[in-house]
Structure formats: structure tokens, C-alpha cells
Write a structure and sequence with these properties.
single chain, about 120 residues, alpha+beta, Nucleotidyltransferase, domain 5, four-stranded mixed beta sheet, 3 helices, 4 strands
């Protein structure tokens, strides 16, 4: 189990080093078995500009660990980022594979107006 976590952190470090070279805002995600979280940070990663999760009261109804809730979180994070004037971000998938809930969140954020 430790090796799996180490591999994910290694992949995330590689991605974050590439994102740091570009001066875009970073949209990062965290995925647990029951919830999914998304945050938009500044390019240095020191300040959170917008956030959304399936743990919020408006999205907590029913099952929160599925693709439907991930797509709702993607729409919500895109809406909140656009409110702050952020239209272009770099997608940081935190070492997770780009499929399932991660893919659903990214595609719904793109449909809602974010570009990455």
C-alpha cells in the first residue's frame, strides 16, 4: 500500500513541476473513496482562489463517490473560478489516472467554461 502511495506522489511531483514552469493557475483535485474535492490555486500554490467538493451540503444528497457527483463538482468549481475571473487553468490530477471520476470532473469543468 505504501508503494502505491509513493508512486502517486512521484507522478504528482512531476506534474506539479511542469505546471510551476507555466504561470497559469492550478486546478488540483483530491479523490477519496467517498468524496472528490477540487481547488483552484495561484501559480505558486500558496493561495486557494476557489474550491468545491462533493462534501458540501448542496451536493451531499445520495451517493457522493460516483461519476455524477464528480461532474457536479466540476461544474461548480468552473462556475466559482469564472466568478473570480479565472478562465484558464492547468489541470493537476494529483497523480491519479485520467479516467472515471477524475475524467468526469475535468470534462464537466471544460463544458462549463474553463480551459486547460
Amino acid at each position: 500500500m505504501v508503494i502505491k502511495r509513493e508512486r502517486r506522489t512521484r507522478r504528482s511531483r512531476k506534474t506539479r513541476s511542469r505546471i510551476a514552469l507555466s504561470s497559469l493557475h492550478r486546478m488540483t483535485i483530491f479523490r477519496s473513496n467517498t468524496h472528490i474535492y477540487a481547488q483552484v490555486m495561484d501559480s505558486l500554490g500558496s493561495k486557494i482562489l476557489a474550491s468545491a467538493s462533493s462534501n458540501e451540503p448542496s451536493l451531499r444528497k445520495g451517493n457522493t463517490g460516483n461519476i455524477e457527483s464528480a461532474s457536479k463538482v466540476g461544474e461548480l468549481i468552473a462556475e466559482r473560478a469564472i466568478e473570480k475571473g479565472i478562465k484558464e487553468v492547468a489541470f493537476d490530477r494529483s497523480g491519479y489516472k485520467y479516467h472515471g471520476r477524475v475524467k468526469a470532473l475535468a470534462e464537466s469543468a471544460r463544458k462549463s467554461g474553463l480551459t486547460f
